[in-house]
Amino acid sequence: MPLSTAARHAAGGPLVSIVIANYNYQRFLRRAIDSALEQDHPAVEVVVVDDASTDGSAEVIGAYGARIVACLRNTNGGHAAAFNSGFAASRGDLVLFLDADDWLYPDAVSTVVAAWQDGVTQAQFRLHLVDGQAVIDTYPPPELPFEDGDVRPQLLRRGRYRTTVTSGLAFDRATLEAILPIPEKAFRQGADGYLATVAPLYGAVTSIDRCLGAYRQHDTNHSAFNDGLAERARWRIEHDFHRLDALSHCAGEVGLALPPDACLRDPAHLEERLASLCTERTRHPVAGDTRIRLGAAGAVASMEMNASLRRRAVQAAWFLAVGMLPRRPAREVLSWKLVASSRPAMLAQLSKTIRRVVG
Question: 197-253, pLDDT tens digit by residue?
Fold first, then answer.
């Protein structure tokens, strides 16, 4: 059963575990650990998993002694393996997973605990997007509302709902016991995608529309790929297929069914398919795709998004342009949306204006 009202109101509140997954992030790790130890909630356990780093991460972890639960893996297994190891070493009624290059604000855990209700299985909150120490944006953008409550209809229709990344998620222990271990080969990277995809099958999602932590952007983010648009798109396509396989399996276990074409109603997935096909079509992983078909599907899916009409219309127009323009201008239009550094100065300013207007 999900975390009960009694557990939330027990003396000191529920025990909350913060599981920090680290691999070669020595330069960021201390900030993450300190942020977990500085939470104002009275009952917090900090579990730090080092996934066989080759830098000085183990020494950083060792310096904390008994203040943390250290879990030093002998072999590198990836994101899912680190999550699995950290959860096995934890005891909390609620579990937050924190990537070692991010950090939490002091009231993150207490805010999550206060927002938890009976029947909730997952909480999600916004993060400040930071470059170094400077806040450059909010993730997800504030003009895009979270989808919460019972999100199973969205999951089973398009394989996705609007959520966030690792460091903005919390789960109740009973749900994690039902869905872990995470398949380690399929989710060597992006293990949060597995958790946020299958956990809502077991209860409600609650959203906190505040920034409770910082999501650091830097050159070695796995998701950045150093602006390798085609490589990034192919990885995300493969990751989506792994997520959908997991969702289909878990949905079947609770008596639900995922339509085989769910991904064709997901604008985020269709965007990556278009990016892959436009930029390196000889390496595109999905046989039979055409730009026209993907563009048309993306336009339809965009108009069904949970967003303002103007935002939906702008995104639908973008899909149609990339799908129907000759290849060279189509690639330029594609790059302008997906790689901010490629935008002409005038278009970059226009993009900011459009974001404010259509939010």
Answer: 999 999 999 999 999 999 999 765 544 434 588 999 999 999 999 999 999 999 999
For residue 199, which amino acid is it? A
| Helix-strand-coil split of the chain, %, nearest 5 | 50, 15, 35
Distances (CA, A) of 334 to 29, 51, 276: 35, 36, 10
Of 333, 246, 334, 234, the residue nearest 289 (C-alpha): 234
Higher pLDDT, 3 or 135: 135
CB neighbours of residue 241 within 10 Å: 16
Distance between CA atoms of residues 306 and 324, nearest Å = 25
Q: Which tokens in the block code for residue 171? A: 């789960």
Would you say 310 and 323 are in contact if contact means Cβ atoms under 8 Å apart?
no
If we measure between CA atoms, which residue out of 122, 170, 162 comes closest to residue 143? Answer: 162
Q: Is 0.85 surpassed by the pTM of this model? A: yes
What are the DSSP calls for 298-315, one per residue? HHHHHHTSSS-HHHHHHH
**Integer Cα distance of 168 and 316 in angstroms:** 28
Sequence-ordered strand ranges (E) for 111-168: 120-131, 134-139
In Å, the largest CA–CA distance within the chain is 65
> How far, in Å, are 49, 119, 147, 202, 251 from residue 206 at the CA level?
27, 10, 9, 13, 20
CA-based nearest residue to 116, from 191, 47, 201, 175: 175
Question: What is residue 139's DSSP assignment?
Answer: E
Amino acid at 292: I
Rounded-to-integer distance, Cα 234 and Cα 156, Å:
23
Exposed/middle/buried for residue 254 (C-beta within 10 Å: 0-12, 13-18, 19+): exposed
What DSSP element (H or E) covers 232? helix 229-253
Q: How far, in Å, CA of 72 to CA of 49, rounded?
A: 6
Letter string b/e over residues 326-357, b meaning 16 or more CB atoms within 10 A of that residue's CB: eeeebbbebbbbbeeebbeeeeeeeeeeeeee
